[in-house]
Design a protein that fits this description.
By secondary structure, the protein is mainly alpha-helical. Among the domains are: about 70 residues, DNA polymerase, domain 1; about 60 residues, Photosystem II 12 kDa extrinsic protein (DNA polymerase, domain 1, Orthogonal Bundle), CATH 1.10.150. The protein is built from nine helices and six strands. The longest helix has 26 residues.
Length: about 180
Amino acid sequence: MFKSPSALSVSLLKREIPLFVLSIILITACAETPTATTITSNTTTGTVTSKSQININTAAIAELDKLELPGTKPSLSERIQAARPYQEIDDLVAKKAISSEELGLIKNLVTVGESGSVTTNQSKKINVNTAAIAELDKLELPGTKPSLSERIQAARPYKTLDDLVKNKAISAEELGLIKSLVTTK
């Protein structure tokens, strides 16, 4: 009536292994790979632009996460943001933010902005003293608990960006990742 433990194990393995293999195949088939879309060309000026390219100098972590490649540790987006600013796309490799193989996979998906200039326009930065939670959520970093935006809002006001760390709203590492995206004025 009862099967021996080894017969039971073999029976389970025969049923579970095909399910495991099928799930791996489905996950792989459903994995989204980043692709550039809507590339336009202007023959009079000789410029080529892509409406879906991500500016690596100004993009928030959430936007850079769209570039995430399977198996990249630490996070590709965090490495890109930490090595800012970039004058040209190849600086990603020169600053050791990513490997040349990774650059080959994302090169058509990213930009450094207008003519390689780094934008530091204060109006595009998020004011940590006045921004609503929804706006601060744009800064959200993977794995931050509790919410980064809630911690920033709870420890207001800030005179300088360093006050974010002094008031224990965020860590020094987190400040390094968002510093180019925020202001106190």
